[in-house]
Amino acid sequence: MTRATLLENGLVIDGTGAAGWIGDVLLVGERIAAVGQQVRQRLPEGLALQDVNCVDCSGLAIVPGFIDVHTHDDAIVLKTPDMLPKISQGITTVVSGNCGISLAPFVVAKPLPPLNLLGADSFRFDSVAGYERAVSAAQPAVNVAVLIGHTTLRFACVADLSQPASASELDAMCALLTRCMEEGATGLSSGLFYEEAFAAPAEEVVRLAQVVARFGGVYATHLRSEMQTIIEALHEAGDTAFRAGVPLVISHHKCAGPDNWGRTRETLPVIEALAARQQVAMDVYPYVAGSTVLREDLVDGVIDILVNWSTPHPEMTGRTLASVAAEWGVDQKAACRRLQPGGACYFQMQEDDVKRVIAHPLSMIGSDGLPHDQHPHPRLWGAFPRVLARYWRDEKLFSLETAIYKMTGLSARNFRLHERGQLQPGWHADVVVLDPARVRDVATYENPIALSEGIEKVFVNGELAYAAQGTAAQASQARVQARAGRLLRRHAPPV
Ligand SMILES: [Zn+2]
Question: Which of 81, 137, 272, 370 has its CA at a distance of 20 to 30 angstroms from the CA of residue 323?
Fold first, then answer.
């Protein structure tokens, strides 16, 4: 018998930004079968009420599954397919391969930085097809859409990463990317900020983005700079995408470093000007701290830095760099060098900038969580509920409908995810039931591994993937139920 669930009497927010209304959503098999009122009185032919699992959603909101557009989940979906940090936030799809770093297509036993950000002991996929087979075998709780990383392509094809790719190396990168796009990749990402990609001129990325354009894919970029030269970096990204003819996504938009605080007043108008001539979007996470590997050049002695992991000094995990430096009697840069390789949270943003970006109509939500860190940035477990609790309910930056749109419909449109991100009859049944009055993130910098509250039920491809256990005290008993995620192949045909 076909599986059917009827979510009744909830506040239906369809993911388009339109106002919510009280009604029902019927899931049959993998699809949404009906969205409306009194749906139990007009069930589809062949479906009897006694065969339907009816769930009263009075006082709760029924919304599309959240799409985490900025992740580094390439390897974790295979290693820990329960994906509890994500599914417990209401996330039903993750976009992996961001910041130029993707697991495919590259094969190596011991990945070097920044590829080791993915936490994989080895890279073993020379194509998207091989990765898709591994995803099917692992059966993660969430869907996965993959970007192909420019830095990964450089590792695969370029002999000297401190140089631009030679003509023949660039041809090889284009050929690899073409194959990945043929096999269903969603697009290309770059991380020009990272040393291993920094030598690449815009021209190199334009050539690759042109490949993506032929397949109707997208281009997402971690800008060459998010500090002093961010305006130049924004223009570079805009021109690259414009010349190639691809939609642009600016990753985790921020103005980093105290000298740049307040400069979203400059960057957002630049992004708006780009958006007047081409398709542009940006993603953002709702915190003033960023997180990446421990890098001496990011240690300025001014901002707070929290150690997330350190291979030589695991005992310093969770400590501030300043306190480690004081204990060792050295300056912070020296302490940073001793802790490497490692990772850290950098409190490098200003709250007003974060708010300005989150409230901007072109922004959507992405966690940028790093799932392999011992003591991760709290965004890994809390980013989406935090937007709802802090920026919708407390700060009233926007309506609940707009907040949901930034996590669902807008995200699906920008990444061209077919028939997802909205509650529409016939679309894939990725659906969340949440309590608007209670939803909140619990993860903090001090205690970053904690389930959010108020995410009551999460359905992925029609199957109940996650159910909260009622009270907060019982939340720790919440368990991932079905794992029904899959790799989402790009739907757009070659153009
Ligand atoms: Zn990044």
Answer: 370
Q: Are 215 and 495 in contact (CB under 8 A)?
A: yes
Q: What is the pLDDT of residue 234?
A: 98
Task: Quick: pLDDT tens for 297-339.
Answer: 999 999 999 999 999 999 999 999 999 999 999 999 999 999 9
What is the per-residue pLDDT across 415-434, written as a single tens digit (0 to 9) for each? 999 999 999 999 999 999 99
First-to-last alpha carbon distance for the chain, in angstroms, is: 40
- Distance (angstroms) between ligand 1 centre and the Cα of 222 equals 5
pLDDT score for 479: 74
Spans of the chain below 50 pLDDT:
none
Report the separation in Å between the CA atom of 73 and the middle of ligand 1, taken as the mean of its atom positions.
13
CA distance 145 to 132: 10
Burial of 41 (0-12, 13-18, 19+ CB in 10 A): exposed
Q: Which domains does the chain have, with CATH numbers?
A: 4-64+424-477 (2.30.40.10), 66-288+347-414 (3.20.20.140), 289-346 (3.30.1490.130)
Q: What distance in angstroms lies between residue 116's CA and the mean position of ligand 1's atoms?
A: 14
What is the pLDDT at residue 2? 79
Q: Say if residue 276 is exposed, middle or buried (CB neighbours under 10 Å; 0-12, 13-18, 19+).
A: exposed
Radius of gyration from C-alpha coordinates of the chain: 22
- 214 contacts 221 by C-beta, under 8 angstroms: no
479 CA → ligand 1 middle, Å: 30
Ligand 1 centre from 98 Cα, in Å?
Answer: 7
Q: How far is the CA of 48 from the centre of ligand 1 (A)?
A: 49
CA of 254 to the centre of ligand 1 (A): 11
Q: Give strand pairing partners of 455.
A: 434
Q: Rounded to the nearest whole angstrom, what is the distance from the C-alpha of residue 253 to the centroid of ligand 1?
A: 9
